[in-house]
Each structure stands twice: as structure tokens, then as C-alpha cells.
Amino acid sequence: MGAVASYIKDIKDTVASTFEGMSITFSHLVRRPMTIQYPDKIPVPIQETLPHRYRGILEVDLDICTGCLACERDCPITCITIGIDMNKETKQRYFTHFDIDVCKCMYCGLCSEACPTGAIRHSQEFEGASYNPAGLVRHFAPQAQNLYKPKKGGETEPKLIAKVDIGQKYLDEFATPDGGGAAEEKKVPE
Amino acid sequence: MIQNGAFAGMPKEVVYAIAMVVTALIVLSAFVAPLAGVTSWLERRVWARMQSRVGPNRVGPQGILQWLADGIKNLLKEDLIPTAADAKLFSLAPYVVFMGFLCSFVVIPFGGSLIVADLNIGILYILAVTSLVVVGILMAGWSSNNKWSLLGGMRSAAQIVSYEIPAGLAILTIVFLAGTMSMQGIIKAQGWAPWDWFLFHNPFTFGAFFLYFTAALAEGNRTPFDIPEAESELVAGYVTEYSGMRFLFFFFAEWGNLYVIGAVATTLFLGGWQVPPWLVSENHPLLLGIAQFVTFFLKAYMWVFVAMWVRATLPRVRVDQLMALCWKYMVPLSFICLLGTIGFMFMSDQGQRIFGALTLGFAIATMINFFRRVGFQIREAKPELYFKPQI
Amino acid sequence: MSDPAQAKSGFYTEDMTISVGPQHPSTHGVLRFVVRTDGEVINEAIPDVGYLHRSIEKIGEKVTYHGYVPYTDRADYLAAMFANQAFCMAAEKLAGTEVTRRGEFCRVIACELNRLASHLISVGTFGQDIGAMTPFVHALRERETINNLMEEICGARLTYNYIRIGGVGYDILPETCTKIIEFLDHFEPIVDEFNRLLSGNKIFIERLAGVAVISKEEALSYNLVGPNLRGSGIQWDIRRDIPYSIYPELDFEVPVGTAQVGALGDSYDRFWVRVREMQESVKILRQCLKMMPKGPAISKVPKKFRPPAGECYARVEAPRGDMGFYVVSDGSEYPYRVRIRTGSFTAMSIIDKLSKGIMVADLIALIGSLDVDAPEIDR
Q1: Of A167, B140, C74, C373, which cross-links B93 as Cys (Cβ 3.0–4.6 Å)?
Q2: Is C20 a residue whose pLDDT tops 50?
Q3: Considering the domain boundaries, does residue A128 fall inside one?
């Protein structure tokens, strides 16, 4: 009798679990799909919905770069190459080239953390495809540019104030040993 | 004898026969090709919505021309035949499979008088002709010169041949009830109302329907029995080496076969193209024809949808479990259904009507229970609801 | 090679040698097995690994400690947080650095979220290998929400570089904590729905019950770890038995296999342990979010991190088992040697033993139930 009982139980279990499974898949037909139909059927461009900390393709604001080479040193995969030369007459140092090989970049964020002014940072851009590897090397110093000298007591030149603020806001996201980057801790609601 | 013209010297009957065959072929292909294509699109959309995704919705309105785009793309692909493969068999296999499936359309009754040939062995013809795909699949598996394909082909042959038995027995149940094997005859033996269908005639035909549907899914290589083309086990089973249009031909046959399954299920169990006489009377033959066609098509397509739904839900069975399921579970149950139905035919009319009503009541109760369960799932998961099919 | 029984009957048959992979939809990553079968039944399945070898251990000798943390992400990209944490723990042990309390909580939150994501992929792809494609997409849908949360916390969705030496790289803001709680409230019924759809399905159970049973002694002698070990009934979880971080203060169960269907230590047990671990991770996350203290998220660590010469081994309970980092330092700012011990690599050794006599379909179920993962095997 045990064999017949287990036979009938097998059939019953199969039918019951199939019934249950089919009710679940049927219930999904009336649920909203989770797909975001990028790039055309979305209300705002995707880049604006990404969080501020998103580590997209690197960008450099050369106007506030001090040429300290901290990013080049800290990069674990040596994708940043910076060239600095000195003008013999004016003794002014300037950039000859500031290249980032985006196809080598690991998007780890160590360079942006090392930067004192926040000149190099990750943008929200992620669509950087190119037809050849050479197109993936981004040149951020197309012509020679002087290095930036941060002024004591804050920046005064109006064009640079906004840039310095953006850089500083980016740097504020990182955690620091004196509690920076941590908003006041609130009791999380139950 | 025809005296002059292009066919001079040939007997009249032969020429007429050839003309009829060619016309039927053209009409059927014109019906079957878009049908299989749209089924492929619908399958992808239905799966996608069941998986919280969207599915193809770009090519044409809501993506309905996706199959055309796929077909054109595959036509433009390189025709790859592996060097060590048997080229003749390799090229021939998709056509054999396609032919096996297309021939079954000859006896599908689309309407009261819309049938290519109302053979008096209609349903037996379908059973016979759908077995041709075994030959095609074995050819594909062998000639690819690939061990994965060979495994897939062997599995498929075993599967299709085994599942002929429960399918045939379930069909035999209905043939006993109807008294004829002709498709139109079986439909005419039923009525338009659900209580006149063979499905709710007695509990045994109700069971026979599910046995037939499961066996037909197994014959059509559909999940949960899609072992021959099990994507995650055998890369792609017997179609591994195929690319381009040859690859599509196999799936063409599979999607079209879904319709054949639905059509046979409708014919045998759901009353076919019968429409209520008070809806459209016989005085308007054109309207009647259209109503019958639409009724049949919708009923058959509902089962296509159910097949897609089952594929989205269930995992795959293993080969030995497949064989065990067939021989240990489905064959005995089919015999029980057959004998039970025969026994029923000896019952009085009163008794038959009572049992019919009980079966119908049970089916309606199951449906209501099903929708209550769906409501439960939605209440548990608390998702965002979206009822429109278009997105 | 026919066996003597066949030769006696006068019927000459040959075993078929098939290559499962390296391009195969079901070997998780680029794995290859050379399988010798007699029809459907396997006689031998020899793993052939190395297709995803990227010399991560060698790279450790060329970059600084801080710079190596992003590389550890790639050691197992599905469970990147754990590799980060193990390496950082090893470096901290070498240098004697303390991690701040808030940093420890952030680490555990990130790790448990990552455990959820990794187990979702594991059970989802396991379902897909068995043929059920819908639960896979549902699991991935939930994982997308977790990825969004990680993106808010640290900016990346897969290779996080979040856990740094001394703490974590970014603090978790209260808005993110609220979102995590909302996600957990949404997620718990989804696991139940997943169970109703897949784990309770009779076909699924029949495919897995009693398949590839690993007994307790075998599991111990083949050095399995993680859910593979616990699926055979052995109680061993690094979080509880060799506690690290703040796990001693948290209250959670360690699920083990209980022969729910079929034998103890079969594929279903290992699968079920993973599903239960997901539910336990949710509990841990809720406790952490309640108990999180104020304070800095990272302690003071020198830019040029130069630990004294020495060696150290740190282990964490990763989703695929015990992941250990053995770091040897020679006093300079580059490690002398980094060795990564992963659970998937040792799981490959038992596949050949278990695959004798099972069918090809069962081999796929076995590989899926062991949750092997090519980046962990080849590093």
C-alpha cells in the first residue's frame, strides 16, 4: 500500500506545486516591469539619476589642478600620465600633457581621494565607447596650462570659486578619521 | 486528357490534384509563417512580463515585427556547415522537421468548411505525421558531427517516441466518445456550450485532456521537457551547429507546433469552431465562417499561451525522470482514463449529465481557486501594479 | 575503453569524451570539464581550470597596500566586499591598526548586502541550470536594488573598493539606511515567493534530492567550506566560530543541511542552506542598522602604508566559504607575497569523485549546487 500511496502523493505534489508556480507567474503579468527603457523612454537622462558618488569615467578640471602628482602615484594601474615643465624665463611651471587611459582605468577612486583640491574626479558619464583604443585616451591638457596655486584663506577669483567648491564637495564624500563624510547619525526608523 | 496548353498530355485528375496541393501549400505557408513568427514575439513578451521585464517592443508597434527582423537577419548570415559534418543530411534535416510539422495543417479545421482535406482518419494522420520530426532531429543530431548534438538528438528521439503513447491513448478516449476519427466529425459531435464539450463530459476526459496536453508538450520539445535543446546542459542540443536560417527553421517548427497542439486540443476537447446558433445564424455564411474561424483561433491560441506560461514556470526534468514519467505515470493513467470513459458510455443519460455537471463544477471551482491564489501572491509581494499589456 | 562486461557480451562500445566548456551557458564562468561518458552516465569528469587566471596574487607584489584593495575586488567579483575585508584585516593585523566602531558596522552592512547579492545570483543561476528561467530573473531584479544601494554608498555596482585599511572609504548616510530598511521590508516576502515558485516545485526537488550526496567525512576530508560544508550537516561558520569584526554582538543562526528532501548533504541541502542564509543576512542587517553608532568611519592610516615585516592570515566567511588572505610583508610599502585561499578552488577537487555514475544533467546540477565561481578558482 505504501507504493500506491507514494505514487498518488507524487502526482498530487506535482499538480499542487505546478498550480502554485503558475499562479505566481500569472500574478507577475499584472506587475510593473522593472526595466528602465534607456535611452529613449525615460523621463530624465540617466546621468541625472545616478548618485553623486557614482564612479563614472574620470574627468579633470585642470583649472584647479596643482600638479602635485598624487593621483599619478596612487593609481594602482598607472593609467594617468602627467607631464610638467618649467618655463625658463618666467619660472612658471605648466602642464605639457595630462593623459588618462580610460581603458586601463579600474574606476577604483583612489586618484580622486588623493587629490587635494578635487580636480580629478569621477563623473556620471559611463558611455565612453570608441572605435579604437587610441580614442580611449583622454587628453585633459590640450594646450599648455599653468599650474594652479591654492590661495590661503580661500579662493578669491570669481571664475575659480565655483570650481573649487565643486571639487571640495566631491572630496567631502570620502570618510575621514575626524568624522568627515558622516552626517549626524539619526536613529533609523523601525 | 488535357489537349492543349501548358499541361498537354497529362490526365485531368493529376493536374487538378497538383494544383490543389500547390494552392494549399501556398495558403498554409502564408498562414503558418506569420503565425509562427508572431508566436515567437508573443512568447518573448509573455515571458518578459512574467519575469518583470519588457521584451521586444521596438521593431514595429510594440515590437510585433520582431520576427521579421530576426528572419531577415538570419537570412543574411553566413551559411555555416562544419567541415566534418555530413553536408547533405545537415542541410536536409531542418526541412524534414518543417515538413513533418507543416503536413499536420492539412487536417486542422479552421472553420465549418475551412479545412484542406477532411480525412476520415484525421486525428490518426496528425499523430503519424508529427512523428516525422523524430527523423529530422536524429538527422540533425547525427550529421552535426558534435557529441552534444548527438546526445540531444538521441534524447529527443526517445522522448518523442515514448510520448506518442499517452497522447495516442488520450486521443483514443475522445475517438471512442465521438465515434469517428475525422476532425470535423469530432467537432460536430460536440456542442458550442462548455457543458457540451468533451472536456467536461466526464472526469476521465478531463484527466485525458491534461494527459494529452502534457504529452503533446513533450512531443513538441517544450519545457518542462525541452531536454533535447536544453540550453544550460547541452549548449543547444541538436541545434548546436546550426546557424542562420537553418537554425530558425527548427524553431519555426517548434512555435508552429504549439499552434497544432492547441488546435488539436480545441478540436478534441473544446468543441472546435462551434458558435452559438443564436449569435450568428446559418443565413449569413460569410459571417458564420468568420465567427467560426475566430472562435477556433482564439481557443487554440489560448493553449499556446498556456504552453508559454508553463515554460516560464517549470524547471526541466532529467532524461530518466522523463522516461519514468511517461511509462510509469502517464501510460497507466491514460489507460485508466480510456477504460473509465468506455465505462461511462454505458451509463444512463441521466448519470452522464450529472457527472458532466460535476466535472464542470470542479473545473470552475479550480479556476476560482486559481485566481484567489493569484490575489494572494499579489497581496504578499505588494508590488506596483500595471495592467496594460503595452509598455 | 569498454568495460569487461560489455566485451563479454560481444558488443564493443566506446566511452565518449565531451568537453563541458569553456564556452558553456552553465559552467559558472569560464570552466572546463573533460567528461568521459558512457551514453548519459559519466565515468569521469576532470576539471580543467585556469581560463580566468589573471595573476592577481603576483600583482600584489607590485602595487602598494592601498592600491591592491581594488585588485582584491576582482578575486571574486560576485563577493567583492569579502575579499576587500579579508585583505584589509590582514594588513591591519600586520600594522596593528584599529578599525573604528562605526567603520566595523559599515563593513558588516556592506558585506551582508553583498552576501545577499551573491546568494541571489547563486540560487538564481542554479534555478536556470535546472531549467527554471523565471526565478533567475526575479533574483536578478532584487539584486539590482542591492546594486543601486551599493552605488549610493560607494559609487560602484560590482567592484566596490569600499572597505579600506582602517575602516571604509565612504560613510553610510541616514537616507541610505532608510532605503536599506525599505529594501529589506520588500525583500523578505520575495524570498518566500521564490521558495513557493522554485524551492517547493516538485520537478526541482526531484532533480536535486539525493543527487551528489557529500557525507560529513567527505566534506571534511576534501576541505569544503561555506554552504557546501554546512549543507552536509557540519556546524562551521567563521562568523561564529572564529569571530571577527562585530559579529560576536549580533544574533543570527547558522543554517545547516537537514536532509529536508532526500539525503543529508545532497544538492538540495546546499541550495536550501543558501536560501536560509539570505534570510539570516536580512536579520543581521536589521540589527546592524539599529545599533549603528556615531563616529568616524575610518581610522588614521598613513598614506604610505608600511607595516612591519611579518606574515599574517585573515579569514572571513564569504558567500562561497572561507576566504583567506595570507600576506607576507618585508617592511616596504609593497607586500612581499599575497596568497588568496578561496572555497571554490577546493570544491573543484570533489567534483571528479562525485561525478562517477551520475548523468550529465546531474553534473550541471552538482556544479551549480557547489556554487563554484571561475574568478575564485583561477584568481
Answers
A1: B140
A2: yes
A3: yes
Does a structural domain hold residue B272?
yes
Containing domain of residue B186, as a range? 81-371
Q: Is C296's CB within 8 Å of A179's CB?
A: yes
Q: Does residue A150 lie in a domain region?
A: yes
Q: Are residues B28 and B130 in the same domain?
A: no
Sort out which chain C residues have CB atoms less than 8 A from B228's CB and list them.
Answer: none
**What's the pLDDT tens digit per position in C267-298?**
999 999 999 999 999 999 999 999 888 888 88
What are the two backbone dihedrals, phi and then psi, of residue A118, each rounded to the nearest 5 degrees? Answer: 80, 25
Cβ A53–C63 below 8 Å, yes or no?
Answer: no
Residues of B whose CB is below 8 A from C137: 51-53
Whole-structure pTM value: 0.91
**Residue A27 is nearest to which of B53, B377, B391, comparing CB atoms?**
B377
Partners of B54 on chain A (C-beta within 8 Å) are 33, 35, 37
Nearest to C296 among A178, A188, A189 (CB): A178
Q: What is the mean pLDDT of residues C212-237?
A: 91
**Same domain assignment for residues B259 and B349:** yes
The confidence score (pLDDT) of residue C27 equals 64
Give the separation between CA C379 and CA C376, rounded to whole angstroms.
5
In the predicted model, what is the mean pLDDT of chain C?
Answer: 89
**Which residues in chain A show pLDDT less than 50?**
182-190
Do residue B10 and residue B56 come from a single domain? yes
* Residue B131 sits in the same domain as residue B59: no
Q: If you measure CA to CA, which chain C residue comes closest to A34? A: C141
Average pLDDT over residues B100-120: 85
Structure ipTM = 0.87
- C182 to chain A: which residues are within 8 Å by CB? none
Number of domains in chain A: 1
Residue B57 sits in the same domain as residue B99: no
Instruction: State the pLDDT at residue C2.
Output: 46
Contacts of A122 in chain C (CB under 8 A): 155
Taking the Cβ of residue C302 and every Cβ of chain A, the question of whether any pair is shorter than 8 Å is answered with no
The residue range of the domain holding A136 is: 50-172
pLDDT at A189: 46
Q: Does C40 touch chain B (CB under 8 A)?
A: yes
Q: Which residue has the higher pLDDT, A129 or C20?
A: A129
Check B233 against C137: CB less than 8 A apart: no
At A80, is the secondary structure helix, strand, or coil?
strand
Does residue B314 sit within a domain? yes
Q: Indicate whether B313 and B210 sit together in one domain.
A: yes
B2, part of any domain: yes
Q: Per the CB < 8 Å rule, is B316 touching C133? A: no
Asked if residue A179 is part of any domain, the answer here is no
pLDDT at position A180, please?
56
In a domain, A184, yes or no: no
The residue out of B17, B42, B76 marking a domain boundary is B76
